[in-house]
Fold this sequence. Notes:
By secondary structure, the chain is an alpha+beta fold. It has 5 helices and 8 strands; from the N terminus they run H-E-E-E-H-E-H-E-E-E-E-H-H. The mean pLDDT is 97.
Amino acid sequence: MKTEPFTVPATEAEAIAEQDRLRPRVRAEGRAPEPLRLIAGLDVAYAVDESCVAGAVTVLDAESLEVVETATVLRPVEFPYVPGLLAFREIPALLDALGRLEHAPDVLVCDGYGLAHPRRFGLACHLGVLTALPTFGVAKTAFIGAFQEPAAERGATSDLVDADEVIGRVLRTQSGVKPVFVSTGHRLALDAATDLALRLAPRYRLPETTRQADHASRRALAAAP
């Protein structure tokens, strides 16, 4: 699949400037494509010393949630850890993995944030703009924002709010378990992203897209020489 060119910035200032340059292109609106056939989960695993990262993309059938295809890539980490700039450590491996797919996904689901980000441009936004695909993020914890705990039953939600702006949705995917944090990346409204996140998590807390991509990235890292 085709994506826009990506270059790892040399400095933190350059990385922030790149986020600022691309952010106006984000469209936090839209529905999932119809018919929705293939959904891809993206995740990474880091070596213990964080010298390299394994990026994984796992494509699932949208109805059965069975794995259709998996692509993994191992790459050196080229950008330091800076809160809010994690995408620049992970995007190179994820773009490489996306480029190896034979099945083009209709939607991308990132293990991370979209608009729920200090500059409203998390990993899901960045990948969405570069790929032009509907994209959203599902995170295990809140990076920024305040929220009220949603009700205990599956499907319960509350808003994630920062500076009086709704930046995401706190979603209980399974009754009695910790919620996840959904945020729009690109070309999907928050309600549509939340509905998809719940649909992708019929049995476990995390969406099946995230679970499968997480397993794939860990396997790729373990198999590395």
